[in-house]
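Notes to self, N-acetylneuraminate synthase:
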Amino acid sequence: MLKQTVSIAGKEVGASNPPYVIAEIGSNHDQSKDKAFRMIDLAAEAGAHAAKFQLFQADKMYPAETKMHDIFRSIQLDSGWLTDLAARCDEAGIHFMASPFDEQSADKLEAAGVPAYKVASSETAKPGLLSHIASFGKPVIISTGMCDLVDIHDAVQICRRAGNENVILLQCGAMYPIPPEHVHLRVMDTFASLYGCPVGFSDHTTGMAAAVAAVGRGASVIEKHITLDRNSDGPDHFFAMQPEELVTYVAMINEAHTCLGSAEKCMLPWERAKSRREGLYAARDIRKGEVLQPADILIQRPAGDIRKRHFLTLVGSSVRKDIAQGEGFSWEGLNITDS
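result:
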Protein backbone atom coordinates (compact mmCIF):
# COMPACT_ATOMS: atom_id res chain seq x y z
CA MET A 1 0.00 0.00 0.00
CA LEU A 2 1.03 3.60 -0.64
CA LYS A 3 1.01 6.28 2.04
CA GLN A 4 -2.48 7.09 3.30
CA THR A 5 -1.58 10.72 3.95
CA VAL A 6 0.71 12.86 1.80
CA SER A 7 2.27 16.16 2.89
CA ILE A 8 2.50 18.96 0.32
CA ALA A 9 4.70 21.74 1.71
CA GLY A 10 3.48 20.93 5.20
CA LYS A 11 -0.20 20.63 4.28
CA GLU A 12 -1.53 17.16 5.02
CA VAL A 13 -3.59 15.62 2.22
CA GLY A 14 -5.65 12.54 3.00
CA ALA A 15 -9.08 11.18 3.83
CA SER A 16 -9.24 12.84 7.26
CA ASN A 17 -8.18 16.28 5.99
CA PRO A 18 -10.11 19.00 4.12
CA PRO A 19 -9.81 18.65 0.32
CA TYR A 20 -6.78 20.14 -1.38
CA VAL A 21 -8.03 22.31 -4.26
CA ILE A 22 -5.88 22.83 -7.35
CA ALA A 23 -6.77 25.76 -9.61
CA GLU A 24 -5.62 24.57 -13.03
CA ILE A 25 -4.51 27.66 -14.93
CA GLY A 26 -2.89 25.41 -17.51
CA SER A 27 -2.34 27.38 -20.69
CA ASN A 28 -5.11 29.90 -20.02
CA HIS A 29 -2.51 32.57 -19.24
CA ASP A 30 -2.45 33.13 -23.03
CA GLN A 31 1.32 33.74 -22.85
CA SER A 32 0.79 36.83 -20.70
CA LYS A 33 2.72 36.92 -17.43
CA ASP A 34 0.44 39.65 -16.09
CA LYS A 35 -2.59 37.46 -16.79
CA ALA A 36 -0.85 34.53 -15.10
CA PHE A 37 -0.22 36.72 -12.04
CA ARG A 38 -3.88 37.81 -11.95
CA MET A 39 -5.04 34.21 -12.12
CA ILE A 40 -2.71 33.18 -9.30
CA ASP A 41 -4.09 35.98 -7.13
CA LEU A 42 -7.69 35.10 -7.94
CA ALA A 43 -7.10 31.42 -7.22
CA ALA A 44 -5.63 32.30 -3.84
CA GLU A 45 -8.49 34.68 -3.03
CA ALA A 46 -10.99 31.95 -3.87
CA GLY A 47 -9.36 29.64 -1.33
CA ALA A 48 -7.55 27.23 -3.66
CA HIS A 49 -4.40 25.63 -2.28
CA ALA A 50 -2.38 25.45 -5.50
CA ALA A 51 -2.16 27.33 -8.78
CA LYS A 52 -1.08 24.91 -11.49
CA PHE A 53 0.36 25.44 -14.95
CA GLN A 54 1.47 23.16 -17.78
CA LEU A 55 5.09 23.13 -18.89
CA PHE A 56 5.62 21.60 -22.31
CA GLN A 57 7.67 22.15 -25.45
CA ALA A 58 5.63 22.06 -28.63
CA ASP A 59 8.73 21.10 -30.61
CA LYS A 60 8.94 17.86 -28.61
CA MET A 61 5.25 17.05 -28.88
CA TYR A 62 4.33 17.46 -32.55
CA PRO A 63 6.12 17.69 -35.90
CA ALA A 64 6.92 21.24 -36.95
CA GLU A 65 4.52 23.04 -39.26
CA THR A 66 1.55 20.90 -38.24
CA LYS A 67 -1.70 22.33 -36.91
CA MET A 68 -1.25 20.83 -33.43
CA HIS A 69 2.34 22.06 -33.24
CA ASP A 70 1.21 25.57 -34.07
CA ILE A 71 -1.59 25.45 -31.48
CA PHE A 72 0.66 24.24 -28.68
CA ARG A 73 3.43 26.60 -29.67
CA SER A 74 0.98 29.50 -29.33
CA ILE A 75 -0.01 28.58 -25.76
CA GLN A 76 3.15 27.13 -24.22
CA LEU A 77 4.45 28.64 -21.01
CA ASP A 78 7.73 30.54 -21.07
CA SER A 79 10.00 28.53 -18.75
CA GLY A 80 11.82 31.76 -17.97
CA TRP A 81 8.77 32.79 -15.94
CA LEU A 82 8.96 29.91 -13.46
CA THR A 83 10.87 31.74 -10.74
CA ASP A 84 8.54 34.74 -10.98
CA LEU A 85 5.42 32.55 -10.96
CA ALA A 86 6.69 30.66 -7.92
CA ALA A 87 7.43 33.94 -6.15
CA ARG A 88 3.97 35.30 -6.96
CA CYS A 89 2.36 32.15 -5.59
CA ASP A 90 4.43 32.47 -2.43
CA GLU A 91 3.32 36.08 -2.00
CA ALA A 92 -0.31 35.06 -2.52
CA GLY A 93 -0.05 32.21 -0.01
CA ILE A 94 -0.72 29.46 -2.53
CA HIS A 95 1.41 26.56 -3.77
CA PHE A 96 3.03 26.78 -7.20
CA MET A 97 2.66 23.64 -9.27
CA ALA A 98 2.88 22.53 -12.88
CA SER A 99 2.56 19.45 -15.06
CA PRO A 100 5.82 18.74 -16.90
CA PHE A 101 5.57 16.99 -20.27
CA ASP A 102 9.23 16.02 -20.57
CA GLU A 103 12.24 15.43 -18.33
CA GLN A 104 13.84 18.78 -19.12
CA SER A 105 10.67 20.59 -18.06
CA ALA A 106 10.58 18.54 -14.86
CA ASP A 107 14.15 19.59 -14.08
CA LYS A 108 13.21 23.24 -14.54
CA LEU A 109 10.28 22.84 -12.15
CA GLU A 110 12.52 21.17 -9.60
CA ALA A 111 14.92 24.12 -9.85
CA ALA A 112 11.94 26.45 -9.30
CA GLY A 113 11.13 24.62 -6.06
CA VAL A 114 7.70 23.13 -6.72
CA PRO A 115 6.41 21.26 -3.63
CA ALA A 116 4.73 18.51 -5.68
CA TYR A 117 4.27 17.33 -9.23
CA LYS A 118 1.05 16.89 -11.16
CA VAL A 119 1.16 14.31 -13.96
CA ALA A 120 -1.25 15.04 -16.79
CA SER A 121 -3.38 12.16 -18.05
CA SER A 122 -1.55 12.16 -21.37
CA GLU A 123 1.76 11.60 -19.56
CA THR A 124 0.74 8.91 -17.06
CA ALA A 125 1.78 6.10 -19.40
CA LYS A 126 5.27 7.54 -20.03
CA PRO A 127 7.56 5.40 -17.83
CA GLY A 128 10.70 7.47 -18.33
CA LEU A 129 9.06 10.78 -17.45
CA LEU A 130 7.15 9.34 -14.50
CA SER A 131 10.26 7.67 -13.08
CA HIS A 132 12.18 10.92 -13.43
CA ILE A 133 9.47 12.89 -11.63
CA ALA A 134 9.14 10.30 -8.87
CA SER A 135 12.91 10.29 -8.30
CA PHE A 136 12.69 13.81 -6.84
CA GLY A 137 10.92 12.28 -3.83
CA LYS A 138 8.13 14.84 -3.80
CA PRO A 139 4.40 14.05 -3.90
CA VAL A 140 3.19 12.88 -7.30
CA ILE A 141 -0.44 13.62 -8.20
CA ILE A 142 -1.46 11.44 -11.14
CA SER A 143 -4.46 12.05 -13.39
CA THR A 144 -5.87 8.90 -14.93
CA GLY A 145 -7.79 9.97 -18.02
CA MET A 146 -7.17 7.74 -21.05
CA CYS A 147 -5.88 5.04 -18.66
CA ASP A 148 -7.05 1.58 -17.69
CA LEU A 149 -6.10 -0.20 -14.47
CA VAL A 150 -3.02 -1.73 -16.07
CA ASP A 151 -1.70 1.74 -16.93
CA ILE A 152 -2.42 2.94 -13.40
CA HIS A 153 -0.82 -0.10 -11.78
CA ASP A 154 2.27 0.40 -13.93
CA ALA A 155 2.43 4.08 -12.93
CA VAL A 156 2.18 3.22 -9.23
CA GLN A 157 4.90 0.59 -9.55
CA ILE A 158 7.19 3.04 -11.36
CA CYS A 159 6.84 5.48 -8.46
CA ARG A 160 7.50 2.71 -5.95
CA ARG A 161 10.61 1.54 -7.78
CA ALA A 162 11.86 5.12 -7.63
CA GLY A 163 11.41 4.96 -3.85
CA ASN A 164 8.42 7.31 -3.86
CA GLU A 165 5.19 6.26 -2.15
CA ASN A 166 3.79 9.80 -1.90
CA VAL A 167 1.25 9.20 -4.65
CA ILE A 168 -2.24 10.64 -5.11
CA LEU A 169 -4.52 9.20 -7.80
CA LEU A 170 -7.17 11.37 -9.45
CA GLN A 171 -10.17 9.96 -11.26
CA CYS A 172 -10.37 11.80 -14.56
CA GLY A 173 -12.02 11.54 -17.94
CA ALA A 174 -10.22 13.15 -20.87
CA MET A 175 -13.30 14.83 -22.32
CA TYR A 176 -13.62 18.61 -22.35
CA PRO A 177 -16.21 19.10 -21.00
CA ILE A 178 -17.22 15.70 -19.69
CA PRO A 179 -20.92 14.82 -19.24
CA PRO A 180 -22.04 13.49 -15.83
CA GLU A 181 -22.65 9.95 -17.07
CA HIS A 182 -18.94 9.58 -17.87
CA VAL A 183 -17.55 10.97 -14.59
CA HIS A 184 -17.55 7.63 -12.69
CA LEU A 185 -16.63 8.85 -9.22
CA ARG A 186 -16.86 5.32 -7.82
CA VAL A 187 -13.49 4.65 -9.47
CA MET A 188 -12.00 6.53 -6.52
CA ASP A 189 -13.21 3.67 -4.31
CA THR A 190 -11.28 1.25 -6.51
CA PHE A 191 -8.10 3.32 -6.26
CA ALA A 192 -8.38 3.61 -2.48
CA SER A 193 -9.02 -0.12 -2.11
CA LEU A 194 -6.15 -1.17 -4.36
CA TYR A 195 -3.49 1.28 -3.22
CA GLY A 196 -4.57 2.82 0.10
CA CYS A 197 -3.45 6.26 -1.08
CA PRO A 198 -5.28 9.59 -1.09
CA VAL A 199 -7.63 9.85 -4.06
CA GLY A 200 -9.28 12.74 -5.82
CA PHE A 201 -11.03 14.09 -8.87
CA SER A 202 -9.83 16.12 -11.83
CA ASP A 203 -13.06 17.89 -12.71
CA HIS A 204 -13.78 18.58 -16.37
CA THR A 205 -17.53 19.03 -15.90
CA THR A 206 -19.14 22.41 -16.43
CA GLY A 207 -20.86 22.54 -13.05
CA MET A 208 -20.19 22.05 -9.36
CA ALA A 209 -22.24 18.98 -8.48
CA ALA A 210 -19.53 16.48 -9.43
CA ALA A 211 -16.98 18.07 -7.10
CA VAL A 212 -19.42 18.06 -4.18
CA ALA A 213 -20.26 14.43 -4.90
CA ALA A 214 -16.55 13.61 -5.12
CA VAL A 215 -15.95 15.05 -1.66
CA GLY A 216 -18.80 12.93 -0.35
CA ARG A 217 -17.13 9.95 -1.99
CA GLY A 218 -13.84 10.63 -0.22
CA ALA A 219 -11.89 12.89 -2.58
CA SER A 220 -8.83 14.42 -0.92
CA VAL A 221 -7.88 16.50 -3.97
CA ILE A 222 -10.07 18.42 -6.42
CA GLU A 223 -8.61 19.96 -9.57
CA LYS A 224 -10.51 22.45 -11.74
CA HIS A 225 -9.54 24.42 -14.86
CA ILE A 226 -9.96 28.18 -14.46
CA THR A 227 -10.04 31.14 -16.83
CA LEU A 228 -10.54 34.87 -16.64
CA ASP A 229 -13.05 34.70 -19.49
CA ARG A 230 -14.65 31.60 -20.99
CA ASN A 231 -15.09 33.46 -24.28
CA SER A 232 -11.35 33.91 -24.77
CA ASP A 233 -9.60 32.24 -27.69
CA GLY A 234 -7.67 29.09 -26.88
CA PRO A 235 -8.36 25.37 -26.45
CA ASP A 236 -8.98 25.32 -22.68
CA HIS A 237 -11.02 28.45 -21.99
CA PHE A 238 -14.50 27.36 -23.06
CA PHE A 239 -14.99 24.68 -20.39
CA ALA A 240 -13.05 26.38 -17.58
CA MET A 241 -14.45 28.09 -14.50
CA GLN A 242 -14.44 31.88 -14.15
CA PRO A 243 -13.19 33.64 -10.98
CA GLU A 244 -16.55 34.37 -9.36
CA GLU A 245 -17.59 30.77 -9.95
CA LEU A 246 -14.38 29.47 -8.40
CA VAL A 247 -15.18 31.29 -5.15
CA THR A 248 -18.50 29.45 -4.92
CA TYR A 249 -16.91 26.19 -6.06
CA VAL A 250 -14.28 26.17 -3.31
CA ALA A 251 -16.86 27.20 -0.71
CA MET A 252 -19.13 24.31 -1.74
CA ILE A 253 -16.24 21.84 -1.57
CA ASN A 254 -15.37 23.01 1.94
CA GLU A 255 -19.00 22.93 3.05
CA ALA A 256 -19.41 19.42 1.65
CA HIS A 257 -16.39 18.28 3.64
CA THR A 258 -17.73 19.92 6.80
CA CYS A 259 -21.02 18.08 6.26
CA LEU A 260 -19.20 14.73 6.37
CA GLY A 261 -18.62 15.30 10.08
CA SER A 262 -18.15 12.31 12.36
CA ALA A 263 -19.01 8.64 11.93
CA GLU A 264 -20.19 8.55 15.54
CA LYS A 265 -23.96 8.84 15.91
CA CYS A 266 -24.98 10.83 18.97
CA MET A 267 -27.39 13.57 20.00
CA LEU A 268 -26.24 17.06 19.17
CA PRO A 269 -25.91 19.48 22.11
CA TRP A 270 -28.75 21.56 20.61
CA GLU A 271 -30.94 18.46 20.29
CA ARG A 272 -30.29 17.51 23.89
CA ALA A 273 -31.12 21.00 25.16
CA LYS A 274 -33.98 21.98 22.85
CA SER A 275 -35.38 18.94 21.10
CA ARG A 276 -38.66 17.06 21.51
CA ARG A 277 -36.87 14.14 23.17
CA GLU A 278 -37.82 13.67 26.83
CA GLY A 279 -35.62 13.56 29.90
CA LEU A 280 -35.96 12.79 33.60
CA TYR A 281 -36.74 15.50 36.18
CA ALA A 282 -37.56 15.70 39.88
CA ALA A 283 -41.33 15.50 40.49
CA ARG A 284 -40.88 17.06 43.96
CA ASP A 285 -38.19 18.53 46.19
CA ILE A 286 -35.84 15.66 47.02
CA ARG A 287 -33.32 15.73 49.86
CA LYS A 288 -29.79 14.39 49.76
CA GLY A 289 -29.69 10.66 50.54
CA GLU A 290 -33.29 9.90 49.60
CA VAL A 291 -33.93 6.82 47.48
CA LEU A 292 -35.85 7.52 44.31
CA GLN A 293 -39.25 5.96 43.76
CA PRO A 294 -41.17 5.94 40.45
CA ALA A 295 -43.42 8.77 41.66
CA ASP A 296 -40.35 10.96 42.28
CA ILE A 297 -39.35 10.94 38.62
CA LEU A 298 -41.05 13.16 36.06
CA ILE A 299 -40.75 12.59 32.30
CA GLN A 300 -40.76 15.81 30.28
CA ARG A 301 -38.98 17.74 27.54
CA PRO A 302 -36.20 18.50 26.68
CA ALA A 303 -33.92 15.47 27.00
CA GLY A 304 -31.52 17.14 29.44
CA ASP A 305 -28.67 15.12 30.93
CA ILE A 306 -30.53 11.84 31.48
CA ARG A 307 -33.01 10.63 28.85
CA LYS A 308 -36.26 8.85 29.71
CA ARG A 309 -34.94 5.45 28.61
CA HIS A 310 -32.96 5.39 31.88
CA PHE A 311 -36.11 5.66 34.04
CA LEU A 312 -35.74 2.22 35.62
CA THR A 313 -32.04 2.83 36.27
CA LEU A 314 -32.92 5.79 38.48
CA VAL A 315 -35.56 3.92 40.48
CA GLY A 316 -33.91 2.70 43.70
CA SER A 317 -30.91 5.02 43.36
CA SER A 318 -30.09 7.62 46.01
CA VAL A 319 -29.36 11.28 45.39
CA ARG A 320 -26.05 12.88 46.37
CA LYS A 321 -27.43 16.39 46.85
CA ASP A 322 -30.71 18.22 47.33
CA ILE A 323 -32.69 18.43 44.09
CA ALA A 324 -35.43 21.00 43.59
CA GLN A 325 -38.77 20.15 42.02
CA GLY A 326 -38.50 20.44 38.23
CA GLU A 327 -34.70 20.16 38.23
CA GLY A 328 -33.22 17.67 35.79
CA PHE A 329 -31.40 14.66 37.19
CA SER A 330 -27.70 14.27 36.36
CA TRP A 331 -25.49 11.22 36.59
CA GLU A 332 -23.08 13.10 38.85
CA GLY A 333 -25.88 13.72 41.36
CA LEU A 334 -26.88 10.07 41.78
CA ASN A 335 -25.62 6.91 43.44
CA ILE A 336 -26.72 4.30 40.92
CA THR A 337 -27.65 0.92 42.36
CA ASP A 338 -26.80 -2.30 40.56
CA SER A 339 -29.87 -4.21 39.46
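- The radius of gyration is 28 Å.
- The mean pLDDT is 96.
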